[in-house]
Amino acid sequence: ELFAVVEPILPSLREDGIAVWVLGSGPYPDGVVALQELLDAASEELEPEDVWEPEDMNETCLYIFTSGTTGLPKAARVSHLKSIMCLSFYELVGASSQDVIYLALPLYHMAGSLLGIVGCIGIGATCVLKEKFSASQFWDDCRAEGVTVFQYIGELCRYLVNQPPRPGEREHRLRLAVGSGLRPDVWRSFLQRFGAIRIVETYGMTEGNVTLFNYTG
User: Fold this and answer.
1) How far apart are CA 205 and CA 116, in angstroms?
2) Which of 22, 86, 103, 188 is most buried, with most CB under 10 Å away?
3) PANTHER family per the record (predicted)?
4) Torsion of the alpha carbons at 29, 23, 6 and 111, rounded to the nearest 10
5) Is the pLDDT of residue 159 over 80?
């Protein structure tokens, strides 16, 4: 559904040697790689490891959007090693394969895609993927899906405590909230209103190599 935005600049992208891959039914212009056709035609058998295993784990695995901690917003390089390290994120904060993890963060950021999706794969947990966060629907979603873990940015928690009180907002299975940027006043209000939920505040930069975890609360 985003292809129409890219189509007018296809000639300049081709001049710069940039490949355009699209998932979804076509037809598409020449030079655009239609992934769905390739997926449909692909064998279920894995290729030999030497075909797909990186020669160097520090090589670029992907580029991901960063909002500009070290300058203007840009695509930041993420290595294979850093991507694999994200597999252990939820284990580090105390989640397990029995958890149901609610994720409403944008997938073009590291928090949503690598820590969130890859983190769920790392522990074999169930991921409830919400296309767009809704403070008014959040607790209903948690009850309906049996959510036990919520990955936040601080603003999401502020939206929740700013909602008018509703019956049943303490009737949930949420036991752990993990994320970044939760202010102390919102932290206190969140716990007072919604119950004894363990909060693990973390901080890391897409382009950095150090991550902090507040295990003590």
Assistant:
1) 15
2) 103
3) LONG-CHAIN FATTY ACID TRANSPORT PROTEIN, LONG-CHAIN FATTY ACID TRANSPORT PROTEIN 3
4) -160
5) yes
**CATH architecture of the region 87-213:** 3-Layer(aba) Sandwich (3.40)
Task: Delimit the domains of the chain by residue range.
Answer: 2-50, 87-213
Strand pairing report for 20-22 and 126-129: unpaired
Whether residue 152 contacts residue 142, with contact meaning beta carbons closer than 8 Å, is answered with no
The Cα–Cα gap between 144 and 11 comes to 47
For residues 31 and 20, the answer to whether their CB atoms sit within 8 Å is yes
Tokens in use for 130? 């919400």
Up-side HSE of residue 197: CA atoms within 13 Å toward CB? 28
Report CA-CA distances (Å) from 23 to 39, 63, 70.
Answer: 10, 18, 32
Say yes or no to pLDDT of 133 above 70: yes
Q: Which residues, 6 or more positions from 20, have their beta carbon under 8 angstroms from its beta carbon?
A: 6, 10, 13, 31, 32, 33
Position 69 confidence tier, pLDDT thresholds 50, 70, 90: low
pLDDT confidence of residue 66: 86
pLDDT at 70 over 80: no
Contact between 179 and 95 under an 8 Å Cβ cutoff? The reply is no
In three-state secondary structure terms, 72 is coil
Tell me the C-alpha distance between 173 and 149, whole Å. 9
